[in-house]
Amino acid sequence: MNLSIERATAADAEALVRAQIAAFHSDAEIYPGVEIGGPPGYDSVNEMRAKIEQDETYKIVCDGQCIGGIVVFDRGQGHYHLDVIFVDPAFHNRGIGSQAMQFLERTYPARLWTLDTPQYAVRNQHFYEKFGYVKVRAYELDGFPLYGYEKAGN
C-alpha cells in the first residue's frame, strides 16, 4: 500500500467529496438511529472547492486513488482546529487515519489542537482519545449534539 498525504487542489474536489460522502454515510450503518447525512456542505463540490481555497486542505492518496481528506483551520497563535478528517470506509482499519493524525502533528507546530465530533460517534471519540485528545465540553450546534476535544500541542 503506497500512501501519501498531499495538499488538495480544486481538481481534487469531486474525489474528496465522494470519499467524504462515503465516510459520513457509513455512520448510518454503524450507529442505530443515525440518519444518512453529514455536516452542512459535506456533499457539495463547491463547498469543498471553497475549503481548498480558504483552508489547509489535504487529500489522502492510496495507490494513486484519493480515499480521504483533512481540513485544518489555522486559528492563529499556534492554535489549529481539525475541521474534518475522513477516510472512505472501504479503506478503514488499515492505519490510514492514524498515519493522517501523525502527519498533522509532524506538519503543524501547534500549541493547541481542537476538534468536534458527534456525540453518537463513539468510534471517532476512541480514535481521537488514542491520540491524546481530551473531551472538554458537550454542546449543540443547530440542534446537533457534539463533543469538543482539545490537545496540547508539541
What's this model, at a glance?
32% of the residues lie in helices and 37% in strands.
Task: Spell out the blueprint of helices and strands.
Layout: E1 3-7, H1 13-30, H2 45-54, E2 56-62, E3 65-76, E4 79-87, H3 96-107, E5 112-118, H4 122-130, E6 134-141, E7 144-152
Parallel strand pairs: 4-5
Antiparallel strand pairs: 1-2, 2-3, 3-4, 5-7, 6-7
Helix pairs in contact: 1-2
3D architecture notes:
The protein is of the alpha+beta class and 154 residues long. It has a single domain, classed as Aminopeptidase (3-Layer(aba) Sandwich), CATH 3.40.630.30. The chain contains 4 helices and 7 strands. It has helices at 13-30, 45-54, 96-107, 122-130, and strands at residues 3-7, 56-62, 65-76, 79-87, 112-118, 134-141, 144-152. A 7-stranded mixed sheet has the order 1-2-3-4-5-7-6, sandwiched between helices. A hairpin with a 2-residue loop joins strand 2 and strand 3 (65-76). Helix 1 (13-30) packs across helix 2. The chain is globular and about 40 Å long. The mean pLDDT is 94.
